[in-house]
Amino acid sequence: MRIATAKETYIADEGLLVTATQRAWMGVLIAMLVLAPFVLNQYWLYLACLVAINVASATGLNILTGYTGLVSLGQAAFMAVGAYAVAFLEGALGTPFLLNILAAGFVAAFVGVLVGIPSLRVKGLYLAIATIAASFILHFVFTHWVSVTGGVRGINVAPARLLGLELASPFALYFVIVPITCLMVLGAANLFRTRIGRAFIAIRDRDISAEVLGIPLLRYKLMSFALSSFYAGVAGGMWAYFFRVVTPESFPFATSIFFLAAVIVGGLGTILGPVLGAAFMTLVPELLKYVVEWLGPVFPNAGAALSPVRTIVFGALIILFLVFEPHGLAEMVRRVRRFFHLWPFRT
Amino acid sequence: MDWLFFTEVTLAGLGSGALLSLTALSFVLIYKATRVINLAVGEILMLGGYLFFAFVTALGLSTWLAIPLAIAGGGLFGMVVERTLIRPMLGESSISVLMLTVGLGSVLIGAVELIWNTDPRALPDFMGQTPVFIGEAYVSRKIAIGFVVAAIVIALFLLLFRFWRGGVALRATATDQAAAYSCGINVPAVFSLAWIVACATAAGAGLLVGAIGGISPTMGVFGLSALVVVIIGGLDSVLGALVGGILIGLVEAWAGTFLGGEYKLVTTFSLLIAALMIRPYGLFGTVEIERL
């Protein structure tokens, strides 16, 4: 049971981690993240990096969709913008690694603002469709602006270099990708303790009321688009260094759906949600591979069925979560926490 | 410019435009009745094509029996989906329901790939091959038949909306659910009806699309074009679906022929954004006035 957590100051009330238990768990998590690369093998480190990249992008989408209420199906396209920015900067200018990633974020944010311009006039589902349109137009640009994007063949990216070290293996990249992602999640958590973040929430709850309260809608909606695509851009930049080749097909429309699904499965409008959701949605297909291998002796064709089964499971997960757990994994975590808070008493 | 060639391209565009209108009608029906954008329409289209394929090749039914069966299969699927998935989601935010249909589409694609694998297939020919000439312009027989069938079905729909009790009930529900309830209209039954009719229409459109271009698990992309149509025309406007369908069909045909195939999507989507900037609720959609 949780007792003696009465807060006496506003600062204590606003803290990110309020109780000793939370701090302890956070300590455990950090220790695990630090120790992981020395314990896990290459394959699991590869997955860990992939999860971290997806978490960064999903957190960005959550700022836009979960907190500002603007549904976007263009997150993959913004990631692609970031990836191309990194590939171009690395190939043509050879600027340093961290600067490239930052630049990728800003380029993506700029594109995000352009895509967000219709958001003042267009709302709800119409906006979602407008972002679909924008992502297809961006895809067209990637295939046809050959001098920058290399057309359909794409660009190869040189391995990232930091302090004279070459970061080529998942082991080396882990030490860059995971801290950046942690910083970004922390940034998102803090964002909603500021005026800007609160304004986003007000816009989500009722945009006209927010405007009446003195929140300039256009500026804040564009800001939300910019922030969200900044996250996507940085994630895309890390993606480019991780996979080392960027083509127009690297970020298909299905990836945008993947991110929206990850945010919904995790829990819209929570910080924990996209982290859990992105990890869950990235790892489930990998676990399916094990299931299929395990079923191999029983069903000889199991290997061929892997890809369709993944598609089915992906769709079924979205449906099941929406119908049975609309607030996502974050809500399940909250329930477990509440159980222990109230424990020996009934919930 | 070669006028004969231009006419032929335009006629082909009209043909695919009619199919787009038919698919768009499926979107509009569901949106009007239940305020749900069904992004799985493209996949239901695919399901219709594959059902027909299965009835003819696996069960060996005759074509003329398989067509109504495939359409009925689409309708049945719509009924089950509405009853089991959409009904429990009543009152949830529109994006949740949107994502639900996206998930449904994904399940359908996976199921089709699992059963029939990913190879594209040709539907058994049931339309004949002799080309049709309008004046001097050549039109593929399949496209001509597709156009005629789509036109007849759409006309039938317009008449049903106007005169049939169910159609009137649907329009009443679309206008004001509470008022429709108080007039004794069975609103849940209207929801069911809308899904059944819309999914049957989509399955029928899938037959036509599949007969023209063959069936494959990726043919759901056609639904994306139809989505552009409804957004440009207005989500709740039958007229918008008709005008938008013809417009997008023509633009796609012209862009595909005179600019190159890869310009098709980008042209229609640019058109979509331009249309949204000028008229946020589509050309013929109802403008929603928001109040606090």
Give a quick set of tags describing it.
heterodimer, A: 347 residues, mainly alpha, two-stranded antiparallel ribbon, globular, B: 292 residues, 11 helices, 73% helix
User: What is the 3D form of chain B?
Assistant: globular
Question: What's the β-strand tally of chain A?
Answer: 4
Oligomeric composition of the shown chains: heterodimer
Count of DSSP-assigned helices of chain B: 11
Q: Please state the structural category of chain A.
A: mainly alpha
From the alpha-carbon coordinates, what is the Rg of chain B to the nearest angstrom?
19 Å
Uncertain segments of chain A of ≥5 residues (pLDDT<50)? none
Measured between the Cα atoms of the first and last residue of chain A, the distance is 11 Å
Q: Work out the helix count of chain A.
A: 15
What topology emerges from the helices and strands here?
The complex is a heterodimer of chains A (347) and B (292).
Chain A: H1 10-14, H2 20-39, H3 42-67, H4 75-93, H5 97-116, H6 124-144, H7 146-149, E1 155-156, E2 160-162, E3 165-167, H8 170-191, H9 195-205, H10 207-212, H11 217-243, E4 245-246, H12 253-266, H13 272-295, H14 306-324, H15 328-342
Antiparallel strand pairs in A: 1-4, 2-3
Helix pairs in contact in A: 3-8, 3-9, 3-11, 3-12, 3-13, 4-5, 4-6, 4-11, 5-11, 8-11, 9-11, 12-13, 12-15, 13-14, 13-15
Chain B: H1 3-34, H2 41-57, H3 63-86, H4 94-116, E1 132-134, E2 137-139, H5 141-163, H6 165-175, H7 177-182, H8 187-213, H9 221-233, H10 238-259, H11 263-278
Antiparallel strand pairs in B: 1-2
Helix pairs in contact in B: 1-5, 1-8, 1-9, 1-10, 2-3, 2-4, 2-8, 2-9, 3-8, 5-6, 5-8, 6-8, 9-10, 9-11, 10-11
